[in-house]
Amino acid sequence: MAILDQKGRLFGKLSIVDIGAIALISLALIGLFLVPSNSGTSIAQIVTAETKPVEVEMMVRGLTVVDPVNLIKAGEKPNIIIRNQPRGQVTVKAVKILIPKIPVPKADGTVNVIPDPRLEETYARDFAITLSANAKVTNDGVVLESEKVKVGTPIEIESPKYIMRGSVMAVRY
Hints:
The chain is mainly beta. The chain folds into two domains: about 1-35, no CATH class; about 50-170, Beta Barrel (Elongation Factor Tu (Ef-tu), domain 3). It contains two helices and 13 strands. It has helices spanning about 15-35, 45; strands at about 10, 15, 50-65, 80, 85-90, 90-100, 100-105, 110-115, 125-140, 140-145, 145-150, 155-160, 165-170. Strands 3, 4, 5, 6, 9, 10, 11, 12 and 13 form a nine-stranded antiparallel sheet that branches. Strands 1-2 form a two-stranded antiparallel sheet. The longest helix is centred in the first third of the chain and has 19 residues, at about 15-35. It is elongated and about 105 Å long. The termini are far apart.
């Protein structure tokens, strides 16, 4: 019995084209699940990532608002938008209104740092907002609703009362 018959089958049973297709599909699956992508993570790493509670510290600079104290409160559940894509809801854990400080030189040559007195006349405020959610933690960082979140990532939070744009200052898990 010949290894290859007249119809192109190995040992009279398997076609060479079928074997080639099976090999190609096998290589594609191995590449998809085991070989890292440009980001350094493969699908297998993301699928097996552990879901943990994560805190994201967000900085909002220069938000123009009349009543900053009553704008956003701890416990609210705004929607989060990462890189212009909606990514679900997060919980506001803490809100801190930051008071800018200015250096004031004294007559003896020293510098005194005081809260900016112009703050009463302007409506621009800076906020440090702590958000909490459950996210997947991989070797490459935190993945929140299929989007990586790292320091410097531009994010937005939105509720019926506001939309705030800022960037990530810290990620804790």
